[in-house]
Design goal:
The chain has 14 helices and 22 strands. By secondary structure, it is an alpha/beta fold. An eight-stranded mixed sheet has the order 13-12-9-14-17-18-20-21, sandwiched between helices. Strands 3-2-1-4-5-6 form a six-stranded parallel sheet, with helices on both faces. Strands 7-8 form a two-stranded antiparallel ribbon. Strand 2, helix 2 and strand 3 form a beta-alpha-beta unit. The protein binds cytidine-5'-triphosphate. Cytidine-5'-triphosphate (CTP) binds next to helix 12 and strand 17.
């Protein structure tokens, strides 16, 4: 997407990931974005203002009390001139300041003074990310309508492994592109896209399943699949950002619960089916989970031991089809029922057949052959299949895919309300 004419204010926080922002700046400039850069005092310990300024093609702002800056451009104007504010890396400290509304230096003052959308790319040690204080702050920021990309899970500069790594520049770029679509100004005095007041899914209830299921064979072994839950969790977050009340029902994943979303954790398909039933009624149901099709007819109560008679024979039975059950629900069928079709061959033909067989309104088809690198990856290329037709989306970050899908579902929902009589 070309970003010509888009004005982005980048606030660089003081974290080791600051060096990655240099690459982000390069990519944004290649796309024609016009950038203004603010660095916190700590950020300057990681990258120099000179290297940032040379890449960004302009001066770096760093001082709230600089008279020159205030005469050339005041801090209020600096925060309002932009179409979008991006905080990367968003340190625990900056996020805490944002959640509290502190304004004791330039970066936090701009974040408090702005009337535009803010996108944060958190980056910190996993203990800091998982700390209840950061969880609380993220929940507050989510309610305030702040957009979040990442963090990723992986090796950290401090030698630990877990969630907290800042997203890679292409993912932040995709989130910026998604954030710049549509209205970027946040109406005052209500900055938040609160459930009751704003957003295309305001006042609607959305139930999302995500992740794999684990079907036990014995107390230590189970049948599983490669689903990471990234797309399902992103859908839950996008639906919440669109104003919906979201219930996320997640199989075993290593992702943190999306901030501010009621998340129910389950292990097996049967547990997931029960949790979905309990979460109904809903306006929209999105079955993004990769539910195991089969489970052991009887899970062994004790660990299955090796024997000289050869390998054990597994007796499998079919799991309940949650999507088909919801789509054919006699009392509580949601107005829109969305299924996913993860295929490795003949993607479209299988998706169309699945739409009819399961009785849902939409099938989101994706190619999960190993060449497509979708399972566990950060990007996805999906095709939306409805009775009305087929629409392929470009390959995008899963976050951007989620935003586009939710926008589509919201539009379908609105059209259905127009056609129908009840709201
Ligand atoms: N699904 C479900 N419950 C199941 C199996 C699948 O809700 N027990 C949902 C998934 O969440 C997904 C969709 O159904 O939205 C497609 O799942 P898939 O396993 O691909 O469909 P199947 O009918 O099993 O088709 P096939 O195995 O032939 O691909």
């Amino acid at each position: 997407m070309a970003l010509t004419g888009k004005r982005i204010l980048i606030i660089i926080g003081g974290g080791i990931a600051a060096y990655k922002v240099l690459d982000l700046i390069r990519r944004l400039r290649e796309r024609g974005a016009s950038l203004r850069i603010v660095m916190t005092a700590a950020a300057k310990e990681f990258v120099t203002p000179l290297s940032v300024a040379s890449l960004a093609g302009g001066k770096v702002f760093d001082d709230l009390f600089s008279l020159t800056d205030e005469t050339e451009i005041g801090h209020i104007q600096l925060s309002r001139d932009a179409d979008l504010l991006v905080v990367a890396p968003a340190t625990a400290d900056l996020l805490a300041k944002m959640a509290q509304g502190l304004a004791n230096e330039l970066a936090s003052t701009l974040l408090l003074a702005t009337d535009k959308k803010i996108l944060v790319a958190p980056s910190m040690n996993l203990r800091m990310w998982l700390h209840p204080a950061t969880r609380r702050n993220m929940a507050v920021l989510h309610r305030d309508g702040v957009l979040v990309v990442g963090p990723d899970e992986g090796d950290m500069a401090c030698g630990e492994y877990g969630p907290g790594r800042m997203s890679e520049p292409p993912a932040i770029l995709a989130a910026i592109e998604a954030a710049l679509q549509g209205e970027t100004r946040i109406a005052l005095p209500l900055r938040s896209r609160s459930q009751e007041t704003d957003g295309p899914l305001a006042g609607r209830r959305v139930v999302v399943t995500s992740g794999p299921t684990h079907e036990p064979l014995d107390p230590v072994r189970y049948i599983a699949n490669r689903s990471s839950g990234k797309q399902g969790h992103a859908l839950a977050a996008a639906a919440a950002a669109a104003g919906a009340e979201v219930v996320l029902i997640s199989g075993p994943v290593t992702l943190p619960d999306p901030v501010g979303i009621a998340t129910k954790h389950v292990e097996t398909a049967a547990e997931m089916a029960a949790a979905v039933e309990a979460a109904l009624p809903a306006d929209i149901f999105i079955a993004a989970a990769a539910v195991a099709d089969w489970r052991a007819a009887e899970a062994a109560p004790d660990k299955i031991k090796k024997s000289t008679d050869g390998a054990p024979v597994l007796q499998l039975v079919e799991n309940p089809d949650i999507l088909a059950t919801v789509a054919q629900h006699s009392e509580k069928r949601p107005r829109i029922v969305v299924g996913f079709a993860a295929e490795t061959t003949d993607v479209l033909a299988h998706a169309k057949a699945k739409l009819a067989r399961k009785g849902c309104d939409v099938i989101v088809a994706n190619d999960v052959s190993s060449a497509a690198d979708v399972m566990g990856g950060d990007e996805n290329q999906v095709t939306i299949v409805t009775k009305a037709g087929v629409e392929a989306l470009p390959r995008l970050h899963k976050y951007a895919v989620a935003e586009r899908l939710v926008a589509r579902f919201a539009a379908m929902f609105k059209a259905m309300l127009k056609d129908g009589s009840d709201a």
